[in-house]
Structure formats: structure tokens, C-alpha cells
Amino acid sequence: MQPDVLIKRVSDLIELSKPTGDSVSEPVQLIQGTITVLQSAYGPDSPQEADLKRLVDLIYTDRRPDWQRLGSTLRGVLTNLKEELELGLVGTIRAQATGEVISDLLLLARQTLEEPGAGPKNVASVLAAAAFEDALRRLAASNGLPHIDKLADVHTALKEKKLLQGAQIATAHLISPSGIGLFTHSGIRSTGQWPTA
Length: 197
Known about the structure:
By secondary structure, the chain is mainly α. It has helices at about 5-15, 25-40, 45-60, 65-85, 90-115, 120-140, 150-160, 165-175. Helix 2 (about 25-40) packs antiparallel against helix 3 and helix 2 (about 25-40) runs parallel beside helix 4.
């Protein structure tokens, strides 16, 4: 879900959470909607989702649920989520997770390069190119660009929106899954060896 769409949905749920007399208008829709936006923002089975389910279970253990308490609890969860989205904190969490995945792919490529023969270089090249492609596609998606099949067109769209500049553009042109020697700016020397820190 795009951030602006997610923020709109969260705002709608906040309105739905406001009490109408001694109840909330649609408690099940409110609970399910809150779970959906939490999963969209933080991923499934996040700590935020687990906390919400625990709180809802506590409210529902009574024979007569306290609807105002439910509304207040969900309003607090939703208000926090909206503020985190508006401040860009949720995108930062996702970017960090994405960075970890890309880092893992590049580490695997590096380990593969240490194996003898031409095959490992090809595998390392594909892994590094996959990490790069994933990073470009995520950058495009996080900035509202529609899905584009050809990676070269994704790259062009990112340049046009000025999301890639300077050395980033040069790096993008150097990376190709067809040859390990093309990775000089992205961390692999033309000899196929990784620089050491």
C-alpha cells in the first residue's frame, strides 16, 4: 500500500474509532482495518500487531466489552501509526530491512567469489545484479513510480525524477548481470575480488 493511501485509510479508521454514544459504530471493521494497516506498515506478525491483538483480547474477555475503551485503544494505535507514517519512520524501518536483504545477497555473492572456477563468478554476478535490481525497483515503488518491466526503463524513470544522481547513475550503468568485471563502482573490482574494509 502506498504511504498516502495508507495514511488516508488510517485517518478513516481514526474517524470510525470515535465513540457514538456508548459504542463505536463498527467494532469488527475497526479491529480488522487496524490489523490490516498495521500489517501493511510493519509487515505481518509485527510487535505492533501482537500488542494490538493482546489489547483487544483483554477488552473482549469481559462478558460486556467496553466499546469506548476499544475505540480509545484503537484510536491510540492508529494515531501513532499515522504520525509514524507522516514522519517517515515506517519507510525507514522498511528501508533498513531492504538494506539487510541486499547486504545478505552481496555477502553471499562475495562468499561465492571465493570458490574456484568461472561458475562462482557467474553466480556472484547474478546475485549482485539481483540485489541492485531489487534496490532500484524498491526505490521506484517507494517514490510512487508504477511497475515497469524493463530495468533500463526503471533506471531512466528514476533519473527523470532526480532520484538517482551523480555517482549513483554511473554505478547503475556499470552493473550488468552479464559480466562481473562491470561492477567496479558497486564494490567488486574488475578482477572479481571484493575490496577489503
